[in-house]
C-alpha cells in the first residue's frame, strides 16, 4: 500500500481531509528538482551533501519534538505506540545518515560545527515551539507531515525504474521501505484518534500546523537545492 492509497482509505477522517488540503503543496514537492534528480541519479554531489548535512541537523531537533509530543499523549497506550513509531523512523534515518555521511566524506565534526540553513532553522523552531506550547493533538499534527510526505515521496520514487549505479539509491530504499511506512501509518492513525477527541477549534489548529509543516517540507528541500546559506 502506498501513501496515496492510504489517504484514500482514510476517506472522511481528519488526516484524509488534511492530506487533500495540501494537494497543491504536494504537487510542488513532487516537481522539486532535488527529488527529480535524486531519483535519476544526476543530483550534483554538493547539493546532496548540503541536504544530508542539514537533514542530520534537523533530525536531532525532530527527535526532541517527538519526545515532547509523546510526553503529552493522553494515555500510556498512545505514549507507547507513538514512541514505537517514532523510534522506527529515527532508527531508519540515523542509519541512512551514517552511511551517506561516510560516503560523501562528511565527518562527525562537520555535523557538530555545521550551522542550520535559514529554512532548516525556521522549520525546527516551528516544530519545537508547537510541541512545547500546543496540545498533544496539535503538536502531533505538526510532526505528521515529515513522516507522511517522506513516505509518499519514497514510494513514488521507488516505483520508478531503478537507475544502475545511482549513488542515492539507499535514500530511495529507506523511504520506500516497509519499516518506514509502518511508522508513518502509526502516526497517521494516532493523529486521527487525537482528532476525534479534539474540539472544533483544536481541529482547525491541527489543520493549520499540518499545512504549515508541509510548506516547510517544500522549503527545506528547495533550500538544499539552492545551497541556501545565511545571506548576511
UniProtKB/TrEMBL annotation:
Enzyme Commission number(s) from the entry: 3.5.99.2
Entry superkingdom: Bacteria
Keywords: Hydrolase, Thiamine biosynthesis
Keyword Hydrolase: yes
Gene3D superfamilies: Heme oxygenase-like
Pathway(s) per entry: Cofactor biosynthesis; thiamine diphosphate biosynthesis
The UniProt record lists the keyword DNA repair: no
Residues covered by the Thiaminase-2/PQQC domain: 19-226
Reactions that this protein is recorded to catalyse: thiamine + H2O = 5-(2-hydroxyethyl)-4-methylthiazole + 4-amino-5-hydroxymethyl-2-methylpyrimidine + H(+); 4-amino-5-aminomethyl-2-methylpyrimidine + H2O = 4-amino-5-hydroxymethyl-2-methylpyrimidine + NH4(+)
Biological role: Catalyzes an amino-pyrimidine hydrolysis reaction at the C5' of the pyrimidine moiety of thiamine compounds, a reaction that is part of a thiamine salvage pathway.
Family according to the record: Belongs to the TenA family.
This protein's name: Aminopyrimidine aminohydrolase
Organism: Rhizobium brockwellii
Taxonomic lineage from the root: Bacteria, Pseudomonadati, Pseudomonadota, Alphaproteobacteria, Hyphomicrobiales
Amino acid at each position: 500500500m502506498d501513501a496515496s492509497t492510504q489517504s484514500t482509505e482514510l476517506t472522511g477522517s481528519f488526516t484524509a481531509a488534511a492530506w487533500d488540503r495540501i494537494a497543491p503543496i504536494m504537487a510542488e514537492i513532487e516537481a522539486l528538482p532535488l527529488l527529480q534528480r535524486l531519483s535519476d541519479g544526476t543530483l550534483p554531489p554538493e547539493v546532496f551533501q548540503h541536504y544530508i548535512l542539514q537533514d542530520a541537523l534537523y533530525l536531532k531537533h525532530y527527535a526532541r519534538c517527538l519526545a515532547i509530543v509523546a510526553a503529552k499523549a493522553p494515555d500510556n497506550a498512545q505514549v507507547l505506540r507513538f514512541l514505537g513509531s517514532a523510534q522506527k523512523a529515527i532508527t531508519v534515518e540515523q542509519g541512512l545518515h551514517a552511511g551517506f555521511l561516510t560516503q560523501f566524506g562528511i565527518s562527525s565534526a562537520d555535523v557538530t560545527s555545521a550551522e542550520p540553513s535559514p529554512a532548516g532553522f525556521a522549520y525546527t523552531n516551528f516544530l519545537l515551539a508547537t510541541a512545547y506550547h500546543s496540545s498533544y493533538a496539535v503538536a502531533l499534527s505538526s510532526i505528521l507531515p515529515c513522516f507522511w510526505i517522506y513516505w509518499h515521496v519514497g514510494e513514488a520514487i521507488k516505483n520508478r525504474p531503478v537507475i544502475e549505479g545511482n549513488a542515492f539509491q539507499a535514500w530511495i530504499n529507506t523511504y520506500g521501505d516497509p519499516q518506514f511506512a509502518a511508522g508513518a501509518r502509526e502516526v497517521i492513525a494516532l493523529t486521527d484518534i487525537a482528532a476525534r477527541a479534539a474540539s472544533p477549534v483544536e481541529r482547525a489548529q491541527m489543520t493549520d500546523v499540518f499545512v504549515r509543516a508541509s510548506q516547510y517540507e517544500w522549503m527545506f528541500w528547495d533550500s538544499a537545492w539552492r545551497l541556501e546559506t545565511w545571506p548576511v
